[in-house]
Amino acid sequence: MRIAQVAPLWIPVPPYTYGGTELVVSWLCDELVRRGHEVTLFATEESRTSAKLIPIWPRSLWRAKLKAPHAVFSLLYAKLISLQDQFDIIHDHCEFYTAPYSKFLKPKIVTTLHHPLTEETIILYKKFPDINFVAISKNQRKSAPGINIVKTIYHGLPIERYEFNQNPQNYILWLSKIMPQKGIAEAIDIAKLSGENLIISGNIPPEYGDYFDFRIRPLIDGKKIQFVGASDFEKKIELLKNAKAFIFPVKRPEPFGLVVIEAMACGVPVIAFKEGSLPELIEEGKTGFLVNNIEGACQVLKKIKKISREYCREYIKKNFNLKRMVNRYEKLYKKILSHEKKT
User: Fold this and answer.
1) Cα 321 from Cα 154, distance rounded (Å)
2) Considering the entire predicted model, what is its pTM?
3) How far apart, in whole angstroms, are the C-alpha atoms of residue 172 and residue 247?
4) Are 166 and 296 within one domain?
5) 215: left (phi > 0), else alpha (psi -120 to 50), else beta?
C-alpha cells in the first residue's frame, strides 16, 4: 500500500524527549516500511525515519518558537493536497487540524485520536463522518458517542528496546509532561507520606513554567525528592528499569498512557489513579494497582514487592507489542480500501 503518515509538527519524529504520539508514529512508520509498504511521512525536517520524509519546516514548532506557528500547518496541508494522488490511504495523527481539510482530500483518511476528547472536539468530529477515527482505548471510545470511530487500537512497543531489570534501586519514579493534570504534586505527596525516594523527570511546557517554579520546585529537596530534567529515550529507559515502582496519579481521563506500558515493559509495576484507560492497561494486583487517592497509593506501595517484575514484562510482550498494533492498523487500511473498491 501507498500510505501517507501525517505527524503533528510541534515535536520531531521520533521525539528528542517528551512526545508519546511522535514515538508511536515513528515505530508505526518503520514497521510498515519493514513490511514492504510505500510509506511517506509528513513531519518536520529534523525527523528521522525509514519512510520517505516530506519536510514541512526545518525545526519542530516548539523549538522554532515562531510568531505564527499555526501557519506552518497550512503549509503541511497545502503539500499534502498537492501530493494526495500518490497515496492509497492517509493516516492522520493531527486530529482537529486535519478534519476541515479532509473535504479536499480524495484518499480515505484514518485519524488516530491521541488526545482526550473534549466537548468542542466531539462537536467537530461529528461533522466529519467520512473520516475513519481510531480510538486508543475503550474508555476513550465510550466518551465520544456519535463520532465515526471504526476501531479501537492500543499502542504497542518494540519490546526489545526496553531493558528488563529484576533488581531495582530504592526509588519510585514519576515521568511525564510536567502539568497539574499528570499528578506530579500528588506523586510528591505519595512519596513524602510513604517515606520513599522519588525521582521526577519531564519537560516543562512554557505555559506551565510558573506552575513548576512556584508549586513544584519548592517541594524538591534534591535528596528524597529529586528532579532530573527531561529524558531522552536512553535516559528514560535507565530511569524506568531501575525504579521499584512507577507512580501515575493522573487527574484527567487519560486516553492511553504510553509511559505506563513502557514502565511495565521494563518490569516495573505501576500504581495509578483509576482514571480513563488505566484500568485497561493495568492488571490489578499482577502488574500494579489502581487506586482512588493518595492514601490508597501509599497503602499499596507497601505491597509492591509482591508484584512479579517478570510477569509485568511478559504481560506487555503479549498484549502491547508493536507487531500487534501494526497488524491491526494494516488490517484496517486493507478493510477500508477493499470497501472503497466495492462501492
Assistant:
1) 9
2) 0.95
3) 7
4) yes
5) alpha
144 and 215 share one domain: no
Look at the block and give the residue holding cell 498494533.
325
* Beta bridge pairs of residue 245: 172
Sheet hosting strand 52-55, strand order edge to edge: 52-55, 38-43, 2-6, 89-92, 108-112, 132-135, 149-152
Residue 19: CB atoms within 10 Å: 23
Alpha helix locations (H) across the chain? 20-34, 61-64, 70-83, 119-126, 138-142, 184-194, 209-211, 233-242, 258-265, 278-281, 294-301, 309-319, 322-342
The whole domain housing 149 covers 2-156+321-342
DSSP classification of residue 56: S
Residue 342 has pLDDT above 70, yes or no: no
Backbone torsions φ then ψ of 109, nearest 5 degrees = -115, 130
- In which residue are the cell numbers 506523586 written? 187
For helices 20-34 and 322-342, angle between their N-to-C axes, nearest 10 degrees = 70
Tens-place pLDDT, residues 221-275: 999 999 999 999 999 999 999 999 999 999 999 999 999 999 999 999 999 999 9
Is pLDDT of 309 > 90?
A: yes
**Cell matching residue 296:** 490508597
Q: Give the tens place of pLDDT for each residue, 87-107.
A: 999 999 999 999 999 999 999
- Helix (H) or strand (E) holding 173, with range, is strand 172-175
**What is residue 17's predicted lDDT score, i.e. its pLDDT?**
87
CATH assignment at residue 185: 3.40.50.2000
